Amino acid sequence: MRYPxxxxxxxxxxxxxxxxxxxxxxxxxxxxxxxxxxxxxFYEKDCVGCCACAEVCPAKVIDVTDDTKAKxxxxxxxxxxDICIFCGQCQxxxxxxxxxxxxxxxxxxxxxxxxxxxxxxKELLVCEECGKVIGAKDHLxxxxxxxxxxxxxxxxxxxxxxGELKLVKPPPIIGPPLRRAHIFRLLCPRCRREVLxxxxxxxxxxxx
Length: 208
Ligand code: SF4
Ligand code: SF4
Hints:
Elements: H1 2-18, E1 40-42, H2 52-56, E2 62-67, E3 74-80, H3 89-93, E4 100-102, E5 117-126, E6 133-136, H4 137-147, H5 155-165, H6 189-201, H7 203-207
Antiparallel strand pairs: 1-4, 2-3, 3-5, 5-6
Bound molecules: iron/sulfur cluster (2 copies).
């Protein structure tokens, strides 16, 4: 028992001379360590709206809402940092590696929890036939850029990329029923399949 007491005394004297080991926050600003994981932030320019971060979040704190009635249709990602566990999985899984990052911000106390949110909004591309969501516009651009010439094998990617480069004007919409020319429109996989089946087998067979 004698030695531990001496050790504590030594620590106490050291603390009197050098000051306390703990930080003086909130009386003085605290500088977090280099790899400190604080409040996550979206970076609008680098986020493409793919939702990978929401998929991997173990605490399910990122809500994704697709508003297909808005003009233009929009995807909204809302991160509730009051229930975030600061694990960093969102940052590690971000497909652009820069769309979401954990900052060094640690002083997150608020009077109203509803204000504990960070958001990002992305324009959506929807099927021109049935109105279903195909994906976020920036996500398709991102994939087309990443795939390069391989993107020519996928019509929605090709149409999105061509639109971005302003190489082609979108062809006029030919009204229903679905026709072969519609394969050059922005369609969801189901509608594209119907167009192709109709073209090969006729309307009746495509519905079977
Ligand atoms: S840090 Fe973890 S808990 Fe917080 S939003 Fe990212 S994945 Fe979810
Ligand atoms: S780009 Fe990154 S931050 Fe944006 S939705 Fe995808 S994973 Fe989340």
